[in-house]
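Box 3.1 — From sequence to structure: dTMP kinase
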Amino acid sequence: MFIVLEGLDGAGKSTQVRLLRRLLAERGVESEYVHFPRFDAPVYGELIARFLRGEFGGVGQVDPYLVALLFAGDRADFAPQIRQWLAGGRAVVLDRYVYSNVGYQCAKLPAGEQRDRLMRWILDLEFVHNGLPRPDLSLFLDVPFSFTERKLAETREGDDRDYLRGGRDIHEDALDLQRRVREVYLAAAAADPQLQVID
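Predicted structure (token representation):
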């Protein structure tokens, strides 16, 4: 069983992952968990953290194709471990996967052909070229945008925030980007029955 939770920043994915893993454990199912991106991973994790801290420029200043390569590289590096867990009979639960790349990178382009072309390119890069395993189920947690705004305005804490080194995440700071990311996720879910919207 391979399940992915997707959503905007601050949508509650981490909470839902904890609840899902608890439910699996109560039913006797061993599960493994990974949060993408893996900021502690060599090469890609470090570069992704630098990008999200704004070291390469703002949200609209770095070509989304190049950014997509960084996030895809992180997942490609970890794919053998996911396959090993699945082959060993474990459930795998991920906080973000390929559709996060689609959502956040495509939202940086105008709706229409440019956005659609990048979406196809990312899906081909990750699933065909990089050969990532496809999840059995991907869930997009669609929360009211006012909830996202409120969560992102709060001080966010935890070990998963160390990559910021006291700074801010350029994706989280761009509420207009977050709105467009939601649009991309919903469009992707309308086109792909494997991506289910949970509202």
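Summary of the box: The domain at 2-198 is CATH 3.40.50.300 (Rossmann fold).
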